[in-house]
Write a structure and sequence with these properties.
Blueprint: H1 21-58, H2 61-84
The structure holds zinc ion.
Length: about 110
C-alpha cells in the first residue's frame, strides 16, 4: 500500500483576524473561479492596450485612441465584479462594503 497522502499545501496566511478557518477555506475554494475571470480580463485589457500602443509605433493614432481606453476599461471591470458579490459566500454586497456582513469574509 503506497502512502499517497497529499503534502501540506503551503499557503501564506493573510492577517485577517475576522476570518475563521472554515471561512478561509471557503474563500480559497471560491477564489480560483473569480481570479480566473480577473486574469482573463486583465490579459484581454493588456492585449487591447498593446494594440493601442502599436498604433503609436505605426502612426495610426486612431487605434491608440480607441484601444488604449478600451483596454484600461476592460482591466478595470474585474474590480467592479469583485465588489458586486462576496467572494466567500456569494451574497450581494454594497459597493462600499469591504467585509461581508453575512460571513465576515474580507473582500480582496
Ligand atoms: Zn460572505
Amino acid at each position: 500500500m503506497t502512502d499517497s497522502a497529499s503534502p501540506p499545501v503551503t499557503l501564506k496566511a493573510r492577517k485577517a483576524p475576522r476570518l475563521t478557518y472554515k471561512q478561509e477555506i471557503q474563500t480559497i475554494k471560491n477564489l480560483p473561479r473569480v481570479q480566473r475571470l480577473i486574469v482573463i480580463m486583465k490579459i484581454a485589457g493588456v492585449f487591447l492596450v498593446a494594440i493601442g500602443l502599436e498604433g503609436i509605433v505605426t502612426g495610426q493614432y486612431l487605434f491608440t485612441l480607441v484601444f488604449v481606453p478600451l483596454g484600461v476599461f476592460v482591466s478595470m471591470l474585474p474590480i467592479r465584479i469583485k465588489t458586486g458579490v462576496c467572494i466567500a459566500c456569494r451574497s450581494p454586497l454594497e459597493q462600499s462594503q469591504a467585509i461581508c456582513p453575512k460571513c465576515g469574509a474580507p473582500q480582496m
